[in-house]
Amino acid sequence: MTxxxxxxxxxxxxxxxxxxxxxxxxxxxxxxxxxxxxxCGKSTLLRMIAGLENITAxxxxxxxxxxxDIPPSQRGIAMVxxxxxxxxxxxxxxxxxxxxxxxxxxxxxIDKRVKGAAEILQLTPYLDRLPKALSGGQRQRVAIGRAIVxxxxxxxxxxPLSNLDAALRVATRIEIAKLKSSxxxxxxxxxxxxxxxAMTLADRIVVLSAGHIEQVGAPIxxxxxxxxxxxxxxxxxxxxxxLSGRIAQSGTQTRVVLxxxxxxxxxxxxxxxxxxxxxxxxxxxxxxLADGENYLFSGTVHFVEQLGEVTNVxxxxxxxxxxxxxxxxxxxxxxxxxxxxxxxxxxxxxxxxSEGRSLLYI
Length: 362
Description:
362 residues; alpha+beta; 8 helices; 6-stranded mixed sheet; CATH 2.40.50.140; single chain
């Protein structure tokens, strides 16, 4: 097992800084997922760990050893890329064995490792096939198997499922989860822009934005207690609804003026926030239709998505930055322009100050 320690890691291309001081500790055997929008620096950070990108500043330790100047081949790392990068003229067996053959490993050891990896990845029946005779998901498993046979200290995955269709992506994601369960001692770092992959695979998620870390935590922690507006809106689908309000009363719980409504939120706030503008967040799945006068806000129906298992209703609401989404179970019918009243449990509401920071972390 191998831990990683990133200390004030920076990466610049000339005058352009893309990684802006990353501090992160990854424990032995963890499955860490780097997630964030395109251009946030997640793949660059992964390539720096692999040694494929030089570190401009800071220190990186793998297994307690400083590796800033150690070449990729000596870091004990195996990387699975977005493209399969398989040799088309080689069988599955030979593709998986190629790295060990180049390293002049004993033939018996190569055979043992290849067949062991094939069994883990359910590739044993396909060892004599060429890549063209495999499905996309099977090819990606071969690429993963090629990494396994090297017996690395750390596995790195750079968006390995992005080239697969939706069904294959789900199936291969399950295979990766099984792989981690079968190799609990292995440290794995996985890069994706897909929050579903992040939520279902990770022990901890690292949310990145513009070259710095927004929040690190377990998937449910990020979902239930986002540190700021960026994380709140990035984690969850559809994204968290954000409405503008004002703090009318601070203390052990906070009263927020939301349009013409007063909302009591069971979150503490300091006196200095009283009277200030606040952002109130609530997830679409935490909203429900309200009867009578006991409601959170009202809006007019703008658009309806009938998905069968759920119905997403898009509302135009005064004080909302964007269209507000309600996620209701089953098939529901609404008319465009219809006025609806919506409510939510008080403990499902989130408050963010004018700088976008959650009141939970202030």
